[in-house]
Amino acid sequence: MDYLGFLNEIAKSRKVIGYFDTYFPEEFAYAMGLHPVRIMSDDEEPVRANEFLQGFCCPYAKNILEQALKKKLNFLSAAIFTRYCDSLRGVYEVWKSEKLSPVVEFIRYSQVVRETAKDYLSLEFKDVFNRVKKALGCDYDYDSLKYAISKVNKKRKALQRLYSMRKEGKLNISSEDFYKTVFSSTWKPIDEFLKSCEALFLRNNSVNVNFDDKKVVLSATELDNLNFFKLLDEIGFFIVSDDIASGTRYVKDFVSEEGDTLDDLIENIALRYIMKPPCSVKDPSDRRIDELIEEVKTSGAKGVIFFRTRFCDSEGIEYAFIKRRLETEKIPHLYIESDHRLSNYQQLRTRLEAFYEQIVGI
Amino acid sequence: MGKRLKATESLKRLIKNYYDEYFSWAKEGKPTAWLNVGVPCEVFYAMDVFPFYPENYGAMCGAQKVTPELSQIAEYQGFTNDICSYARANIGSLLSKKGPVGELPIPTIQVETTNSCIMIMTWWRAVEKLFNVPTFVIDAPLVKMDSEGHHLDYMEMELKRMIDFIEEKTGNKFDKDRFTEIVKISNEGKRLWAEILELRANVPCPMNAGDIFTHMFPMVALRGTPPYVEHLKFLRDELKERITNRDFPVPHEKVRLLWDNLPIWFDLRLFDELEQYGIIFVIDTYTQAWGPRFMGIVDEENPIRSFGYYLGSGFLNVQIERRWQLMQDLIKEYKVDGVVFHSDRSCKPYSLVQPELSKLIRDNLSVPSLIIESDHNDQSGYDRNRVIERIKEFSQMIEMGRK
Fold this sequence. Notes:
heterodimer; A: alpha/beta; Rossmann fold; four-stranded parallel beta sheet; 51% helix; B: alpha/beta; 8 strands; 53% helix; globular
């Protein structure tokens, strides 16, 4: 069953809560018995969304709105936005005005990677989820939140294992299948996701593959279109690791399970989401660049593919520094720009093939 | 067409003195700071740190039409051509050491706040990394209507952290008494600015949009200094004089319009040109950002918290409900016949709610609106004739609707 079909089914038995970036603290949703799901882009061309958002809005954000306007996301009981970027902020305003889900919430998120924001964000989480509790008739307490933290940590642990196996050549699946699995962690129920990981671990029990010459690291914000990974597979690349918001930046860092009170747990959650590997919309973002370089070095990748979604402001600046750093480290890289539909597919293919020849040789 | 204000001559001197002072402070090795427009310059004046606003410099690049060539320099270094044109012009100017005022001195420190857009934060980060400038980000999470409760507490804490940062990086100490004096001067100017904005409600309007955008400069960069008060008094008095003498830019107004968003800095003459057709922009939303609704009188007893409130409730840090409220108030107070939304490619938070606002205005107030697309600072792709024709057609439609 496809992603939307699956979520429509889930919505028959429990309330589904949609989020749009990986700064959403999903632990709260699980603790309240809700099913949190990251809304992924599809290949819809914006038609209705064009009535509400201009052409220079991020196409990913616009596509999310298009899906909602076309009632594809009617299974959502609530949509919760954080202030991730200025385009998603625009989507939130339209979503709210057009009442595209029964409940619409906005977390007044901190933009800084500083421990000093912890107390503020803890209070903000409490406020927002208190309103969600009332609106959806659900609740959370110390035990349910502790359990939820532990479950999400288990999911991250399984994802970390997947990434390690891939790096060590112990996971013989295509990039397309690898990312299909990774991204499913943001919408599948945790137990189901863990089961699929176990099956994958078993199947690859004695695998040892060597993709040394074809290894690259992929850097991007959100990149949901699996056709892109399929294209990389077809050309011959092996995505050994990544620097993607729903990839390694989602997987790294756990929420501490220590603490005697509900407030302790909430603070632990706030701290993890403030200090996690930052996207370029947060400041400082040094950790992101440092870890990208580290991924390249530890995985033995031959280069980096940097994918920028058109009109993404923060990546439009960040790229200049990633470029500098990669040049200093003498790591070959390719900058490509597209949208959620890969509307310049043939051009992408040509450029990727040329890059493949450059780093791998014919 | 384009009746000039006497105050514009004194403004030119004010701007020249400001830039001269920035250059001489930097030359003498005295501390300077780059701030974005949400950061209160009063604190910096009180701490003897010269506050410089790159957004104002960006507007200067726009007005002098040098943005495209400066952008190219930034683009060669990997900055993409679809980011904010202020940022491209500023970074290009720094990298090339060229621009409207020559080589711009690199500041001692930078402070910015997230209360307008994410872009600003990454632009400041670029300068931080390119030139190794210590930088502080005042974290200002987006609010719905106002900063209150734990949000306001956080804003106050953030401003206190900013003061600690300035002290640490410049060695200059924060003097509460001096700060209070500066806040008093700043408040005096804010009252004058509020009067100036109110005078524009007169029918006919005594000041077109091009002039108010030009005269924003002291509100942005000089708050808390005596010349700022002096200039605003002069401007206020001149507007009063215009009303008394019935000396208006458009004596026989046909259509009174509201401008939403930043102006097109490279074509402020657009407003003058439309005057000959009886079209006048009597109010705008941008200069309101420094007006009493969004940057009001600071509580002299508790100034840091009060600044925190205005910073947290800044014009671009609020949600559509507050923008809608502002639109309704302005349309009523200024007897507005129609709204022109400048959909600005370089300002997403300002622009992306405009279609929704346009719909609200149409459905609830029966006021027509027009969306024109441009950029506040980069003239590439700007079709001036088309913009003028569309505003003319829009105005004719309003007039016909009356008949």
